[in-house]
Specification:
Length: 203
């Protein structure tokens, strides 16, 4: 009898393990993205399912991150995940995209840092002494654990303000009391992510 009971318990344990493995996903019970599918891992040969593209080991494309889509100036078409944008190349101060202000504010939506290592640079002009520049980046990670960062540089490309965490997925850089001249907002990070950029310039 003891032998039969031990075998029965072992069988139950094996069955539970097999069932859990078949379900996939993490401890929360949510299945992991299908390999080759949107946000899933790329296949071993670096490819994905049709219409998707392998970027940093993750398959991108299709309708995702809809919460970040909004009416307004965009860097990529809504619901599109592609690395090349209308503002590229803009990795350097010389190639920076000039921000268009309405009053004291400028905003760009559906921007992308893609692929990993990409840098987005934007320019603006302070017209008087004592200008305050505030730049906020709000991002949505595409590759796992991607984090965005924002900074403000002066005309020589020297850092004048680093971003500080202002939310779970947001950073803000503030440069106060700046002299008249050209300034740059730099966005970069680790991994690939979609983001929204808001910049204010006062006075």
């Amino acid at each position: 009898m003891i032998t039969l009971q031990t075998w029965a318990r072992a069988s139950v344990s094996v069955a539970i393990l097999v069932t859990a493995a078949a379900c996939g996903g993490g401890d929360d019970g949510i299945p992991d993205p299908e390999q080759g599918g949107v946000r899933g891992k790329c296949f071993a040969d670096g490819t994905c399912n049709p219409t998707l593209t392998c970027v940093d080991g993750i398959c991108l494309g299709g309708v995702v991150d809809a919460a970040m889509d909004a009416t307004g100036p965009v860097d990529t078409p809504p619901d599109s995940l592609v690395c090349d944008t209308q503002f590229e190349p803009n990795e350097t101060t010389a190639a920076a995209h000039a921000l268009a202000f309405t009053g004291t504010a400028a905003s760009l939506m559906n921007l992308m840092v893609c692929p990993t290592g990409d840098i987005d640079m934007f320019s603006l002009t302070a017209t008087g002494a004592g200008t305050s520049i505030v730049a906020t980046v709000t991002y949505t990670a595409i590759t796992p654990s991607a984090v965005g960062a924002v900074a403000i540089l002066d005309a020589a490309g020297v850092l004048v303000a680093s971003g500080q965490v202002t939310g779970a997925n947001a950073q803000t850089a503030t440069a106060s009391g700046r002299a008249a001249g050209t300034y740059y907002v730099r966005v970069l990070g680790n991994g690939t992510f979609r983001y929204k950029l808001d910049v204010t310039r006062t006075p």
